[in-house]
Design a protein that fits this description.
Layout: H1 12-36, H2 43-50, H3 54-57, H4 64-89, H5 96-108, H6 112-119, H7 121-124, H8 134-156, H9 162-192, H10 200-211, H11 214-217
Helix pairs in contact: 1-2, 1-6, 4-5, 4-8, 5-9, 5-10, 8-9, 9-10
Length: 218
């Protein structure tokens, strides 16, 4: 007779210890990412960073793919937290899109490897690198970005009709894409060691001028 698999849930103390260990692993993975890019993040490199054996990590992450997927979601959480804080701190609804664009830039400009890990895997890394699959997009990524756009829509469309709210959300998406495009070009320029003609600040000023007050102007 086959023994039944235990379904006993871990105690709160064990659960907290496990979560702390997962966070330590992710912090080590982020450190390796900053110094070597996503391809440097492996179970072996993270284990070495923590002074552990590679098999010890299997209890938390069964593969490099699982580790990097969790890392990317964690990096996205950091981004959403930074953008949400900037949006909530901006008192004027007219300037909330500019605040979001600047926060996106400030969050990633000193951590371009984090930006590349979240947004550029398919373009920059070979077939052995981890690409976020449909399930992760549907279950992990989309709900987080949807929450950000819900917040922007709420700030931009107070007392608006359904059609006006849809337009506000589309403009918010355009502003986010503009910030994404700016960081993509800065990442390319950094990789090629070929700075853009315009300064970062002048580009940010142009984008914020374009989007600040857009809702009312339209």
């Amino acid at each position: 007779m086959t023994a039944k698999k235990s379904t006993k849930r871990p105690s709160p103390r064990v659960a907290r210890k496990r979560e702390r260990s997962r966070q330590e692993i992710l912090e080590a993975a982020q450190s390796i990412l900053r110094n070597g890019g996503v391809e440097a993040v492996t179970l072996a490199s993270v284990a070495g960073e923590l002074g552990l054996t590679k098999p010890a990590l299997y209890h938390y992450f069964p593969s490099k793919e699982a580790l990097v997927r969790t890392l990317v979601v964690s990096l996205l959480d950091d981004e959403i937290e930074a953008l949400t804080a900037a949006i909530n701190a901006e008192k004027s609804d007219d300037h909330v899109l500019g605040a979001m664009i600047r926060a996106f830039y400030e969050h990633y400009i000193r951590h371009l490897e984090a930006f590349r890990a979240v947004y550029c895997q398919a373009q920059l890394y070979d077939s052995h690198a981890v690409i976020i699959d449909e399930q992760v997009l549907r279950e992990e990524i989309n709900p987080r970005t949807r929450g950000l756009f819900d917040l922007l829509e709420e700030r931009l469309s107070r007392n608006a009709t359904k059609a006006e709210r849809a337009r506000c959300r589309q403009i918010a998406s355009s502003a986010w894409l503009a910030a994404l495009g700016l960081m993509t070009m800065l990442g390319v320029a950094d990789a090629a060691n070929d700075p853009l003609v315009h300064t970062d600040e002048s580009l940010l000023e142009s984008l914020t001028r374009i989007f600040d007050g857009t809702i009312q102007a339209g």
